[in-house]
Amino acid sequence: MASKVFKLIAEEAHRQKYGLEMIPSENYVSENVLKALGSILTNKYSEGFPGRRYYGGNEVIDKIENYAVELAKKLFKVPAAFVQAYSGSPANQAVTMAVCEPGDVVMGLSLSSGGHLTHGAKLSFSSLFYKAVNYSVGEDWKIDFDELEELAKKHKPKLIWAGTTAYPFKLDYKKFKKIADEVGATLVADCSHITGLIIGGVHQSPVPYVDIIMTTTHKTLRGPRGAIILVTERGLKKDPEIKSKIERAIIPGLQGGPHNHQTAAIAVSLEEALKPSFKKYAVQVAENAKILAKELGTVSETHLVLLSLTKYGYGLGYQAQYALEEAGITVNKNTIPGEPASPFYPSGIRLGTPALTTRGMKEKDMVKVAGWIKRVLEEIKGLDLPKEQDKRKDFLKEVKVKLAKNKNLKTIKAEIERFAGKFPVPGIR
Ligand code: DSN
Q1: At what positions is N6-(pyridoxal phosphate)lysine found (predicted)?
Q2: Is 234 exposed, middle or buried (0-12, 13-18, 19+ CB in 10 A)?
């Protein structure tokens, strides 16, 4: 009897094909990436690095990892690359361990300004084991470099993160470099969200400005879940030991055997990212986001749109996420800078174009998508978050039930299914 899991995978495939995947950190990988990921390489243990493994039988695995490393170095034009980190958060942990001693100061963009948990957020290792200092965005939603400089001079960080997860503007690495140089900090770019855009030439490369780069491989880069750590010439000059420090942080510091099937799939996705067609894809991702943002009344210089819902009411992030999901559009609720409601019940949504662009959607399709989103958002008017904290949980439960019965959302869902079904998804028939 076939495993129950395959029935569930078929169910998820239907959702992925007939809905609009708009979480900006998600994408659809190619059939070849899927093949490598589902390969027999998962059977092998390979603690260590190529030529220096603890177990035997790693001749082929060594070739695969060396190939992935070479491709990463070529794609990003850097002298060193590491491909074993299981995903972005462990990779950031490895970088922090390589650069800092416990208790050292690390600085990153605050979570509520669009930063990442691992850049010094409360409850993350990055603030539990290190002294975290957060900088933020100003009223224009852009990074406040005056504040960043002031904080850096005061706290003398060992490491400064230049990276974001919910930030619709380009990053100015030159400004980060100036501040990092002033205080002697190691500058690390977390490009996870925008790596594809950097490869496509839409965003400037951080390579000339930073010491280390971390990128996940599954967002705009369109590979399997995973991460790559890169060291620049500047980084090697700053600390000639940095390569072995990163290796030691990965194993024995944090991980055991690498996921060889994942390494192979990363290599396949890097081969794809080196092709001219990938550049075209990345440019289209940004063009689509620009149009989508404009149609929704905001701006984007990236692959994502951070949409404030305050014009529709108070604390509507959850309600919008639920309503959009009922209509077949997947986004995530998100805080907006200066969040007027609460970090747990935020006032915005975050949505993006990488996955839709992979399916072949273009500007005219984004206008249609924005139209559906606006129609859905009309349905959450009047569903404002209660000001009384103890009423919020039950209120949102009731909202969910109500939205599941909403006829207008069902009509929109049927329209979206007809539309989305025409666009192919790799690996889904
Ligand atoms: N979860 C990722 C994102 O959605 O941006 C960050 O780790």
Answers
A1: 219
A2: middle
pLDDT of residue 270: 98
342 annotated as belonging to a binding site for a ligand: yes
Q: Which of 17, 158, 219, 243 is catalytic?
A: 219
Question: Residue 155: which of 220, 224, 107, 208 has the closest Cα?
Answer: 107
Nearest protein CA to atom 2 of ligand 1, as residue: 25
- Say how far apart CA 231 and CA 34 lie, in whole Å: 28
Count of Cβ atoms closer than 10 Å to residue 344 Cβ: 12
- The atom of ligand 1 lying closest to the CA of 26 is 4
Torsion sign over Cα 335, 336, 341, 347: negative
The protein residue with its alpha carbon nearest to ligand 1, atom 1, reads 25
DSSP symbols for 131-147:
EEEEE-B-TTSSB-HHH
Establish whether 117 is an annotated binding residue: yes
Angle between helices 260-273 and 59-76 (to 10 degrees): 30
Q: Which of 87, 193, 220, 305 to mutate to test the pocket of ligand 1 (most atoms within 8 A of CB)?
A: 193
Cα–Cα distance, 360 to 58 (Å, whole number): 39
Q: Hey, what are 379's tokens?
A: 């349905």
- Residue 45 known to be catalytic: yes
> Among residues 190, 211, 365, 379, which one is catalytic?
190
Q: Alpha-carbon distance 264 to 259, whole Å? A: 9
Domain locations in the chain as residue ranges: 44-273, 276-420
Q: Which of 20, 188, 234, 182 is nearest to 88 (CA)?
A: 188
CATH of 44-273, one of 3.30.980.40, 3.30.1360.40, 3.40.640.10, 3.40.30.10: 3.40.640.10
pTM assigned to the model: 0.97
Model pLDDT for residues 263-311, shown as the tens digit of each residue: 999 999 999 999 999 999 999 999 999 999 999 999 999 999 999 999 9
Q: Is 304 annotated as a binding residue?
A: no
- Catalytic residue status for 104: no
Q: Whose Cα sits closest to atom 3 in ligand 1?
A: 25
